[in-house]
């Protein structure tokens, strides 16, 4: 190899390594950003669509577990995501208190309000 080819090869390797490092840092940044947004939605207890006034009747079948209910609420677009409401159910210990029945729920309700409603909890202290 000539010295010109050698310098070109060194430059290409440097550019390639720099691009790989930049992609790695970008991936880490995106992971932190996703974690922050998920945590904010989980702990801030904000409604999915606060300006919406629509309410819908949702039936929870007997024997449904927390994952089934979270999937149902996500499919009907009452909550922002099934894993978000599922985490809220487990953090608030609502997962073992879910009661079968028909409930009037809407996307303007906070995840905590939805959980209290489907568990039959009337006050916020319990």
Could you give a quick summary of the protein structure above?
By secondary structure, the protein is mainly α. It has helices at 3-44, 66-75, 82-91, 111-119, and strands at 56-60, 101-105. It folds into 2 domains: 1-44; 56-119, Dna Ligase, domain 1 (2-Layer Sandwich).
Could you describe the 3D structure shown?
The chain is mostly helical and 126 residues long. The protein folds into two domains: 1-44; 56-119, Dna Ligase, domain 1, CATH 3.30.1490. Helices cover 56% and strands 8% of the residues. The chain contains four helices and two strands. Strands 1-2 form a two-stranded antiparallel sheet. The N and C termini lie far apart (77 Å).
- Uncertain stretches of 5 or more adjacent residues: none
Mean pLDDT: 90
CATH class of the largest domain: Alpha Beta
Major sheet: 2 strands, antiparallel
Radius of gyration: 24 Å
Number of strands: 2
Number of domains: 2
What is the CA-CA span between the terminal residues?
Answer: 77 Å
Q: Under the CATH scheme, which architecture of the largest domain would be assigned?
A: 2-Layer Sandwich
Q: If you consult CATH, what is the topology of the largest domain?
A: Dna Ligase, domain 1
The number of distinct helices, counting runs of at least 4 residues, comes to 4
Strands in their spatial order, largest beta sheet: 1-2
Structural class: mainly alpha
Write the layout of secondary structure elements.
Blueprint: H1 3-44, E1 56-60, H2 66-75, H3 82-91, E2 101-105, H4 111-119
Antiparallel strand pairs: 1-2
Helix pairs in contact: 1-3, 2-3
